[in-house]
Structures are given as structure tokens and as C-alpha cells.
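Good morning N.,

You mentioned wanting to compare the apo and holo forms, so I went ahead and generated the holo version with flavin mononucleotide. This is what I fed in:
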Amino acid sequence: MIRILGIVGSPRAGGNTERLVAEALKASAEAGAQTEIVRISDKDIKPCDACMSCRKTGECKIKDDLESIFNKMIEADGLILASPVYFGSATPQIKALIDRAGYLSIARNRVFENKVGAPMVVARRAGHNFTFAQLLFFFLHQGMIVPGSTYWSIAFGREKGEVKEDEEGMLTARVLGKKMVWLIAKIKSPS
Ligand SMILES: Cc1cc2nc3c(=O)[nH]c(=O)nc-3n(C[C@H](O)[C@H](O)[C@H](O)COP(=O)(O)O)c2cc1C
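and this is what came out, ligand included:
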């Protein structure tokens, strides 16, 4: 079974980032994957405080929702990290997840190595590329494998639901969702 986890880094529930991720996961499910979506909007993820205790214990001493999300990330074969653009950047919520999950992974012998990872970004007008790179840097740092789509998996939208009108953006999501399943299948059973 191929498992794909989509993490929505917007604090706004039911927003454009969630719709874009849902479109990708729907395509992954149609291609045979088991999918799950995690919304950071209903989670509490505090920023890393650089205590470095994870280096010694393999655990994060901050007790919030990070651990349960991290465990889902470990179980998944493929991971989507998605964020809206906030002042040209990824949201503080997804950045907190990246920092803590990234350090924890290193403390546990690089648990994301060779998983498939893909960034997705939504903005009203500008800042997609920088935010896309922020998410991409996590995957590349962690030794993950990044598939492409028909374009970078980004879309435009401001008010909730507007992203649906961006046909090309929604297409990049569907192609990405399918491509992740194709790539994971190749990695798991090379022929
Ligand atoms: C605090 C804040 C900062 C934003 N900064 C940008 C920006 O720099 N560039 C941009 O194009 N849109 C910006 N936006 C608009 C959002 O990226 C846009 O509304 C997006 O669709 C929100 O995604 P969501 O519905 O998943 O929350 C900003 C929105 C907020 C709330």
C-alpha cells in the first residue's frame, strides 16, 4: 500500500491551500494510494527553541501536536508540504513544523531518507517561488526525492475557494498527485 500524507500549512481552515492539496490527494487516491490530510489550522505546533535535547534523546521536549504529525510523516511513503504565501514566505506554522521535524529526523538517523516529497504553494499575487523553495529545501535537506508536474505546483487565489478558478494550478495538483504514486511505486518495487 502506498501512503501519501498532505500537510496544509495554512492557519485558515477550508482555504485555498487545503483545496489544492485535496485535489492532489484525490488524484493520488484514484491512482491507488491511501491518503490523509493534516490541517495545521487545528494543531498546535510551537517553534523550535534550539534546546538541542533531541540530539541526545531523539525526542522533542516541547509537548504539543508535533509528535503525532511526525509519526504520520514517518509512516507515509510520500509527503506534501503546502503553504500559502505570507509576506513573501511560508507561514510560521509550517516553518515551525519543518524546523522541528527536520531536527528530530536527524536525531533519529534521517528517517525521511528516500521518501517522496512535494511542495505546493498558493498566493493571491506573488511570492510563490520563494515559498516553494523554502518547502523544497526541507525535502532536499532530508535526502528525499522530489517529483515534478506540468509546472511548479503552485496556484493563485485570495478568498476561500478562489483557487478552483485557477485551472492550470489545479491541473498541476492532479498531475503531481498521480506522479507521486507512480514514483513511489517505482521506488518500492523497481523492475
Ligand atoms: C498575513 C498574510 C500575508 C499574505 N501575504 C501574501 C503575499 O506576500 N503575497 C501574496 O500573493 N498573497 C499574500 N497573502 C494572501 C494569501 O496567500 C492568499 O489569500 C491565499 O489564498 C491564502 O491561502 P489559504 O486560503 O489556504 O489560507 C497573504 C495573506 C495573509 C493573511
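Helices lie at 16-30, 53-57, 66-75, 92-107, 128-141, 167-188.

Happy to go through it together on a call whenever suits you.

Best,
F.
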